[in-house]
Fold each of these.
Amino acid sequence: METPSLDNQLVANKPQHKVLPKKVLAQRAFFIIVGSILMGIGIEEFLVPNQVLDGGIVGISIILSHLLHFKLGYFIFLLNIPFFYIGYKQIGKTFAFSTLLGITVLSITTIMLHDVPVFTNDLLLATVFGGIILGFGVGIVLRFGGSLDGTEILALLFSKKLPFSVGEIIMFFNVFIFICAGFVFSWNRAMYSLIAYFIAFKVIDIVIAGLDESKSVWIISDNSDIIGETIIARLGRGVTYLKGEGAYTGDNKKVIFCVINRLEEAKLKTIVEELDPAAFLAVANIAEVRGGRFKKKDIH
């Protein structure tokens, strides 16, 4: 009997790519389209008419559109074409097609809105609301697996060859764009562009992380049992006991781990303070929580 070779065994055991259900793909496509339209509205109805820029490839597209007098959507699509291929090779087919969908819808939206009357000519209002709408749109697209700008992909490639992180490379790239905006438009507009970019950046964080921010809590105490029981009774949150050992004393410790939301943080600190003022307490933000028994129980 022929024994399968090691290579054949590895191929047989290799995890297969799982095709997403059509319902999930349809939901993803829907939200990417909605997010792309929102970004197009923020750019074409608020920022561009008031000569305020976004960062990344879109920012370069706005500058080129102003200098060459072609519609913005054409530049957004053409400049992002190389990144579809790079994204396909570096991240995956699903990401590349999601990005292609988002960029296509964004480009079409900006072209269609080019001659539509703007919402406001007030520079401050346009900067603030343009940044909010743009950030909300980008956040939705990122949350559902797409991208609306090739800057992140470019930064990912450069970070492998340069001693800088992806975030630092994106920052350098955008600083360069805003400096160019100062020469092309005015330094006043460049500073407003920075404000719009900062607002959009914060809104993206809110959309991706969600408003119901979760926190992880670690408690080390000699009264772990009573603290854990009280958290369950008064907060309705489950707790997990972990075994720990003090590096200095060598004593065995029972460590409490639990997940709460930000509204419950003050009450949890009060519980720990009441039961053991000397307890060690560490609280950290969590971007996402799935599975387990995180759902809050009823408090009786």
Note: Residues 22-47 form the longest helix (26 residues).
Amino acid sequence: MTEHATADPATEAFVAHRNLLFTVAYEMLGSAADAEDVLQETWLRWSDVDLDQVRDVRAYLVRITTRQALNRLRGMKRRKEAYVGPWLPEPLLTAPDVAEDVELAESVSMAMMLVLETLAPTERAVFVLREAFDVGYDEIAEAVGKTPAAVRQIAHRARRHVDARRPRQVVPASTSRAALEAFQRAIETMDTQALLEVLAPEVVLVNDGGGIKQASPRPILGADKVTRFMLGVLGKNTDRAITLSPTMANGTPALLVHLGGEFDGVLAAHVEGSVITGLYYVRNPQKLTRVTAETSLTLR
């Protein structure tokens, strides 16, 4: 009997859709660790399903994943309320070609994920399924326990909310990469003027230490303040070599930051025109375990 003939159909179906399900959960939760937990919960429920009764495997799996993610999203509210300092999504290393898909790159970018944080749980689920994955209203209705008419209204409200807050423009990856390279050179040479030139006047820096690593308790606004903070913080580490390595995180160019040879965090940027308007620095070690594991494997 061939391997294909003896394979478990339920397992094959789950594996075939795993990347899709992970992305759905991640965009709803902003946490790769929680998204993996949701996939475990999805698998446990899927393994008990009678496949003969399933008309559309993809829709069924997305429905289970959405329900589990919604349950977890509602439970995460207290965790975020008690969080020390600004909260950023857990960075997700992505393949270079993701950035060439502008819509996908925008849907998982740090800037966009922070906009999604302003939605209510059901609004976020509806928006993600409809806008990022083009799921039909009837399927979304089954996933979130609403009528199709109600889902249409929720989708309209969520889209209007997001459009009012989403980044004004999405630039090609090459433009983002050029701005980040200029930022990297300015930091490595401690060049104040060069840093000011690559930062938009209204740039915002959000750094997430989770109460474990040093971080500003509030977002820092304005090129002058961001420059002083970045060079001031890094200036305190002059006894530890600073290494910035280009990578791709959440669909856009980013930097891996090492201090004294030790991995310190992921710095992502949002670029408009040719300047950086948003900087997102994740230093909380609890949010870096996946990145640490993946970069360690790459270096082997």
Note: The chain is about 55% helix and 15% strand.
Amino acid sequence: MVQELVIAIVAAASAGALYLSAGAKVVKQYERGVVLRLGRLRNDVRGPGFTMVIPGIDRLHKVNMQIVTMPVPAQDGITRDNVTVRVDAVIYFKVVDAANAVIQVEDYRFAVSQMAQTSLRSIIGKSDLDDLLSNREKLNQGLELMIDSPAVGWGVQIDRVEIKDVSLPETMKRSMARQAEADRERRARVINADAELQASKKLAEAAEQMSAQPAALQLRLLQTVVAVAAEKNSTLVLPFPVELLRFLERAQQPAQQTELQPRQAVRPPQRPAQAQPERSAQAQAQPERTGQAQAQPQPQPRSRAQKSQSGAPVPTPAVLAATAPARSSRSKPFARH
């Protein structure tokens, strides 16, 4: 009898232990417990720690209260300016009401994901391509409001929505690249033209200053030659300016005048010509031919420069005048009758 009583007590204790172990639950710090007793929601939401439920009667649903990071799949759409784009995003949300997250919606994660995809497609159709590329903050705020409005009744709070990437067709990328290159080239040309204008003004001032001093231009030329010759990797062609030739010519003219003046002062006296009378006497001594008189051809007079080069003395004008009658008498032909 006693033995049977002991066995009954042990069995009851084992059943109680099994019952307690089945009803004992532990809720973590970042979770909340929602109890449904016989399918009816209990008003009290179980906090973190140890809690007891009635096995077979109560059912505990644990809800994660942490912030959930959910990627939104890429969505294809057409913008308001008729450009086909592919946009993906990421959404950050958390559960603020565990009871509504269990009761109001079947799967709040799936519901938030579908709502995010739908809102993303809607925001693509309402925006321009420039807004998607440069004005994302405004689009993120509008997307957050579109998702947060229905999620409030689910006990879910949307913390933040970010558009991650905007994919464009290759043709659109090339068009945008050409547009950017053209814009940059336009700005570069404007800047270059402005620089040329400023440089031309400075060069005009420098030219005005150098015109008063020609030596400054030569110094500037030499400085340029030194700058180019420092590289030692190219052939240097040095132009010879006309101004430098004129400068050297003006510098040489005084020296030439000083050299010519002493030479003209010590010119040697000319020798008297003696060969011309002898030549005329020999011409008169020649025999006369019978039948006709042939005039002897007159020698071609040489220039003073040629006679000076040959070494013969240059006849003076007085000697030439004395020999002129003799030549005229010889030049008259005569014949015997």
Note: Strands lie at 24-27, 31-37, 40-46, 49-52, 58-64, 68-78, 84-95, 156-167.
Amino acid sequence: MSRTATEIATQPTCWRRAAEAAAAFDGLPQPGERVAVTGCGTSWFMAMAYAALREASGQGETDAFASSEFPVGRSYDRVVAITRSGTTTEVLELLGALRGKIATLALTADPKTPVMDAADTVAVLDWADEESVVQTRFATTALAFLRAGLEVSGPLPAGVKTVAEAAVDAELAVTEPLPEAAVSAEQWTFLGRGWTYGLAQEAGLKMREAAGAWTESYPSMEYRHGPIAITGPGRVAWVFGTLPEGLAGDVARVGGTVVNRASADPMADLIRAQRLAVVLAEAKGYDPDRPRNLSRSVILTEA
């Protein structure tokens, strides 16, 4: 078993620990604050998911930006940065630009990195750190930590499960058989609405990183506005969360296949996509722990 597969399987335990940590942590966004969440790559997609979920919970206006595209001149009460390695250049540069102007919180897996001094407050989720280059459990654990903070501050939107409930769904997701249509497909499009759109983006990225797969990601309702043109036999539309009315029929009409587990927490459903990426990588003879052209952290040097 690859290291990535082993780390994927530990996520239910990591999420439960994240919920406990969040309940005792002082420094999470408070209701009514205007917040921005940032990161790079996978961390950016987790930021997108949290931002949409926080706004839907009525706890305050929340934006998400890739760290390289952050509008530094914009006013926020707090900025949350997600960085597994604690060394990502764009994140550290942004935190430096915000120091003394806006309160900052960083989520990281490594307490021996520059982010410890770059942010005002740091949540160290070192039990979710990974040996694999590909992010799986740290990303979802960071999102679980932030989700649990929303639970502490107020009710979640209707239909959104608690982190404890999501962990129960995750236990099934790490062991159940993957959909055969997804395993045998040649192309995958991941879809989501609201906070699950960030998860759809991450699922597509994971498939590209680990397996070099042809994947795309869109908001669910945008799928019929162009992307459906590529749908056909051997191609899958994987929908996180609630399946929009009529979408399954539209996909079937052009020969595609819908994959949807609406009863499962969308974050648990992401585990299935992570597992699919590993299966496809191994089928191609790739090493899912060390994908081509990637490193654990992007550290830029001056020209």
Note: The mean pLDDT is 95.
